[in-house]
Amino acid sequence: MEEQKNLGRSIINNLDFFIAGIALTVLVFVTFFGVFARYFLGSPFAWEEEVQLACFVWITFLGVGAAFRTGSHVAIEIVVERLPKKIARWIELGGYVISMGILLFFFYYSDVIVYSMVQMGRSTNILHIPNAVIYLVVPVGCILMMYNYTRVIIKKFKEVHD
Q1: How far is residue 122's CA from residue 126's CA, in Å, rounded to a whole number?
Q2: If you write DSSP's letter for every residue of 138-159 in order, what string do you get?
Q3: Coil, strand or helix: which one is 44?
């Protein structure tokens, strides 16, 4: 029973990697075949750019959540690392609070934008993919960033107290 719980958590915790990986694979294949069709067949895909844009958006916003979880995001830590541990932890906590505020702001307004896209019925020109489907990943990515950053901060503070 415990193994099933851990497997379920593992799948949920790595869902962003999996979906971003699928988007990256689609992006590479579409780009490769698009170049082949344009230069060797003389007939480019008209829809190629729309799919590439959607893939870039999905890779970016799912990848950032994964970067928070793995500590791969951009951080300038040279000053904080030289401070006493107690002060460094307070600065990390302050950075966390500021980041959460910014992510909540982005979440709220990205949700408003996606909702307005649904209301207007906007879609891409060639494939008619609803723009809301493409940009729905923005609020989802914000939630994943908040979730993953919170997990990282909790883990760091538990290590300090252990």
Answers
A1: 12
A2: HHHHHHHHHHHHHHHHHHHHHH
A3: coil
Angle between helices 15-39 and 48-70 (to 10 degrees): 150
pLDDT tens per residue, range 26-60:
999 999 999 999 899 888 888 999 999 999 999 99
Q: Phi then psi for 126, rounded to 5 degrees?
A: -95, -55
| Tokens representing residue 120 in the block | 């207007």
Do residues 114 and 36 make contact, with C-beta atoms less than 8 angstroms apart? no
What is the dihedral angle through the alpha carbons of 128, 130, 131, 134, rounded to the nearest 10 degrees?
-100
User: How far are the Cα atoms of 94, 104, 142 from residue 108, in angstroms, in the given order?
Assistant: 21, 6, 9
* Inter-CA distances, 91 with 12, 41, 77, 150, Å: 30, 57, 11, 15
Record the pTM. Answer: 0.79
Write the DSSP string, 55-91: HHHHHHHHHHHHHHHHT-S----HHHHHS-HHHHHHH
The tokens for 137 are 């990943």
